[in-house]
Specification:
The complex is a heterodimer of chains A (113) and B (114).
Chain A: E1 9-13, E2 18-23, E3 31-38, E4 45-50, E5 55-56, E6 61-64, E7 70-75, E8 84-92, E9 107-112
Chain B: E1 5-7, E2 10-13, E3 19-24, E4 31-37, E5 44-50, E6 53-56, E7 65-68, E8 75-79, E9 88-95, E10 104-105, E11 109-113
Parallel strand pairs in B: 2-11
Antiparallel strand pairs in B: 1-3, 3-8, 4-5, 4-9, 5-6, 7-8, 9-10, 9-11
The chains are: A mainly beta (113), B mainly beta (114).
Chain lengths: 113, 114
């Protein structure tokens, strides 16, 4: 499986934008970039995913570099509820192994009031 | 609607005992996944099913671990002859689609082996 690299931790202030980076220099052409997050004492939850183009949904935006070797999850206005571990995951859904989620260490986001 | 449910939420057992962990996926979801999560780590894949067929069990750590989903709905993860190193949070997830659909996670079962 292609590997992702994320900072261990980041801090933000409430109501400010947050940019969470992810490097995936060995990404293959059929790998989708997925983001999940895990709030304290809860199971992971889906945030967003994309292949090549930037994506927006009600939770966040995903900016994908033109060479696809990196991506950034953008929370436009962080709230205290966004404090969580954010995981950047590559999934090759053309392969059986792509059905699983391979979680790395993730980025622990702290949001200050 | 109801999300993924797991039972029991907490299980304390003695070393050497067998345990069965249950997962009830979202109704109609085709795929069901089992993960194990150690404290401070991300979840680690164990196995998954499409309907009742076990598609991939490469993540099961050894032959003491097994899983089934006989009718394509509820699944049971069984750990035989538990060891202290089996202590972890066991998480189940389900997906409407197979091969890449969004996974919805349950609250997990916290297993403690004494």
């Amino acid at each position: 499986d292609a590997k992702t690299t994320q900072p261990n931790s980041m801090e933000s202030n409430e109501e400010e934008p947050v940019h969470l980076p992810c490097n995936h220099s060995t990404i293959s052409g059929t790998d989708y970039i997925h983001w999940y997050r895990q709030l304290p004492s809860q199971g992971p939850e889906y945030v967003i995913h994309g292949l090549t183009s930037n994506v927006n949904n009600r939770m966040a935006s995903l900016a994908i570099a033109e060479d696809r070797k990196s991506s950034t999850l953008i929370l436009h206005r962080a709230t205290l509820r966004d404090a969580a571990v954010y995981y950047c995951i590559l999934r090759d859904i053309g392969e059986t192994s792509g059905s699983r989620l391979t979680f790395g260490e993730g980025t622990q986001l702290t949001v200050n009031p | 609607g109801a999300g993924v449910s797991q039972s029991p939420r907490y299980k304390v057992t003695k070393r050497g005992q067998d345990v069965a962990l249950r997962c009830d996926p979202i109704s109609g979801h085709v795929s069901l996944y089992w993960y194990r999560q150690a404290l401070g780590q991300g979840p680690e894949f164990l196995t998954y099913f499409n309907y009742e067929a076990q598609q991939d069990k490469s993540g099961l750590p050894n032959d003491r671990f097994s899983a089934e989903r006989p009718e394509g709905s509820i699944s049971t993860l069984t750990i035989q002859r538990t060891e202290q190193r089996d202590s972890a949070m066991y998480r189940c997830a389900s997906s409407l689609e197979y091969q890449g659909g969004t996974q919805y996670f349950g609250p997990g079962t916290r297993l403690l082996v004494l």
